[in-house]
Design a protein that fits this description.
Elements lengths: L1 E5 L2 E5 L12 H10 L1 H5 L12 E7 L5 E7 L3 E6 L4 E7 L4 E6 L7 E5 L3 E5 L4 E6 L4 E7 L4 E6 L3 E6 L4 E7 L5 E6 L6 E5 L3 E6 L4 E7 L17 E7 L3 E6 L3 E6 L7 E4 L8 E5 L4 E5 L4 E5 L5 E5 L9 E2 L6 E4 L4 E6 L2 H19 L11 E4 L2 E4 L1 H11 L3 H19 L12 H20 L31 H25 L12 H41 L18 H12 L2 H11 L1 E6 L5 E6 L5 H19 L1
Antiparallel strand pairs: 1-2, 2-29, 3-4, 4-5, 5-6, 7-8, 8-9, 9-10, 11-12, 12-13, 13-14, 15-16, 16-17, 17-18, 19-20, 20-21, 21-22, 23-24, 24-25, 25-26, 27-28, 28-29, 30-31, 32-33
Amino acid sequence: MQISSVNDVKIYNLSHGKSLPEWLSDRKKRQLQKKDVDIQRRIELIQDFEMPTVCTSIKVSRDGQFIMAAGTYKPRIRCYDTYQLSLKFERCLDSDIVAFDILSDDYSKLVFLHCDRYVEFHSQHGHYYKTRIPKFGRDFSYHYPSCDLFFVGTSSEVFRLNLEQGRFLNSLQTDAVENNVCDINPVHHLFATGTSEGRVECWDPRVRNRVGILDCALSSLTEGTEVQSLPSISALKFNGSLTMAVGTSTGQVLLYDLRSSQPLLVKDHFYNLPIKSLNFQDQMDLVVSADSKIIKLWNKDSGKVFSSIQPQTNINDVCIYPNSGENNFPNNIRYTSLIPFSVQVQEEIHRNFTKCKMSIRKGLSHLVGSSLLRAYMHGFFMDIRLYHKVKSLANPFAYEEYRKDKIRQKIEESRTQRVQVKKLPKVNKELALKLMEEGDDEAELASRKKKGKALPSVLGDDRFKVMFENPDYQVDEQCEEFRLLNPIVSKVGQKRKKKLRLLADEDDEEPEGRASSEEESSDDDKSWVEEVREQRRLLWEEGRDRRRQERKQADRNTVLQPQYYQIKAGEEFRSFNDMARKQRLQKASLEDRLKLEEHSGTSHMVDTAVGSKQLSFTLKKVNFSQKNLLFRKASHKTSSSTM
């Protein structure tokens, strides 16, 4: 840890000091820690809080538990858990990250904008989806009310991707050639984008119309400033509903009130470097602006410099941990954690550190750095002999507490040997009873064998307790899937019980005349196949009966509408019996209709759909004996003529 003072403000650099390379072996690391005093005194607040080569950006989740950092090489993202002070996970990506954002309160929803125009979405388990935008992107912002992602880049258009609908919407057309940065006001959700021409265009996402243009290029130029190129917008940040900070590529920070086109304050870094990050520290009314060389903290009302931080390497981004005074900024080596405090806060920190040292070290501060007490992470490595000696002095009644714990364990072990009353749960009682019986069989088998161990029961596992408490997990024994699988599961359970009995009686010989296990298994297979077929037949019959009942119910609910027919001119109306007879004929089979036609001798076909036309014909009976006689006479005449 390094302590520096700027304007009577002490700054604690928690990441200062040498870091051991990852490729070193554990033995060489221990040797270096013994020889190098800087490595021994280095405070590692969060384990592996660094990046192998370069860190480009860093963000903190809204719940404050996770810190996300992106870097290269290889392109990767790292997540740190501040509650455990350790690295939670690391994911490598296909290309470098230009910008990323955390959409959820924790790390479960992440969005990455890559340098190859790809937009990648990650969920809690890892990669979820990947899509591409039309132009190369430089920055993006998420609009929570409409679930829209606004992408700006090397184009005059602002591309909109709706995450609720899963598609691109109509783009916003700006007057700029390129857009560098963008931001959304957290109060009234005004969308603002900074252009390469030094303008800030503000849009209303509700109506997708531009509501104003702010020219910041001329306002950033002060007296005596040398102009080499047109200042472009390199950083943008909202604070509250009316305050907006704008950073330019020439190193100026302009503070605006949205109700005015003139800046309230212009702050120059005097390095002529682009402003990379802008943040607001609301507890002390400070603005934190950073370029690649320096981080400046100044009052947003008066512009008076509060403090400044100038590390040894270039700065890529700045992130303020919420509701604290800690600033995290990635650079070209690793992350750096700096805590700037005022004089009153600094004195309180000193008191807390002194109190913490006295409570942890128990008066052993003179041994820090020696072989008996060595600093490591947020604790110390202590020699075991020194530990036992300090523990005996600090707690002389440790043996009495140990003795009481042993007696309590013995009493609890004796209680477990008593008769336990088994209570079935309210949900899935049959399944619980089945699991209890299987557990008893396994316990009996394990007790017979010396080396055997019973498997843990599902009922005693907390991961499955919801299955016996929540009624939504109740097994429906009348459903089709259960009835088809139940014969198989029951047979498997029976085979399992037989196997347990065979393992228990493996020393006994098989009696003469008893069927072998293969024959029993074949019989069991035939039996469960027959049961499955029987269940399928029952299910088919139940489905058929159910469909019949549904059709009957539908017929009952159907309201019959009367049909009216118009009698045309020239037609005769006989009676309704003719219509009924025709309907019966239409429903009768072909054989019945032919019998009726033979009985009447005439066939009638009436087609009312084409004008009630009628076709009448009579079936003529042929005498086959007369036909044969005529054929014989004709053949006799032909034969006589030839002779």
